[in-house]
Design brief:
The protein is an alpha+beta fold. The chain folds into two domains: about 50 residues, no CATH class; about 80 residues, no CATH class. The protein is built from five helices and five strands. The protein has a three-stranded antiparallel β-sheet. A two-stranded parallel ribbon has the order 4-5. The two termini are about 50 Å apart. Bound molecules: zinc ion (ZN). The site of zinc ion (ZN) has 7 residues, from loops. The site of zinc ion has 7 residues, from loops.
């Protein structure tokens, strides 16, 4: 069974159930479908509400964008985890040691408390907070 949203020549909207689309065409040709309000047999299939189609399209676009973002995030996570050292919760100490030349310069990532991050900032040591989705998995695991 298929359901059609129908509309008569007086714009009365109603619905009809048919065994197939040809069943609908057949009944319509024989003027068997009538408007329940005005009994008109001049019936058309109602045009689907545009907002339904649009929101579905938007969903598809959003899903595509999300997939692209996930792919991008995965690349960044990969980049960080291969090129930088995971220093865990020693991040502030390591960043400071590198900044003051006590340790060789290299990319690091890890966890810092809010206070540690603020202290680094005050000392002029650059450290960027990573959003969860960009944080390499091992670091994220330690966070939780
Ligand atoms: Zn009608």
């Amino acid at each position: 069974m298929i359901r059609y949203d129908l509309i008569c020549k007086h714009d009365h909207a109603f619905e009809g159930w048919f065994s197939s689309s040809s069943d609908y065409d057949d009944q319509r040709a024989k003027r068997l479908i009538q408007c329940p309000i005005c009994s008109s047999a001049k019936i058309e299939k109602a045009i689907m509400a545009p907002n339904v189609a649009t929101s579905r399209k938007k969903d598809a676009t959003a899903q595509k964008q999300l997939a692209m973002m996930n792919e991008f995030a995965a690349k960044i996570r990969e980049e960080i985890s291969t090129k930088c050292d995971d220093v865990g919760d020693k991040f502030a100490d390591e960043a400071r040691a590198i900044h003051y030349g006590e340790k060789p310069e290299r990319g690091i990532y890890g966890q810092a408390t809010k206070r540690e991050a603020e202290a680094l900032h005050e000392e002029g040591i650059a450290a960027l907070p990573l959003p969860d989705m960009l944080a390499p998995t091992p670091a994220k695991k330690k966070l939780n």
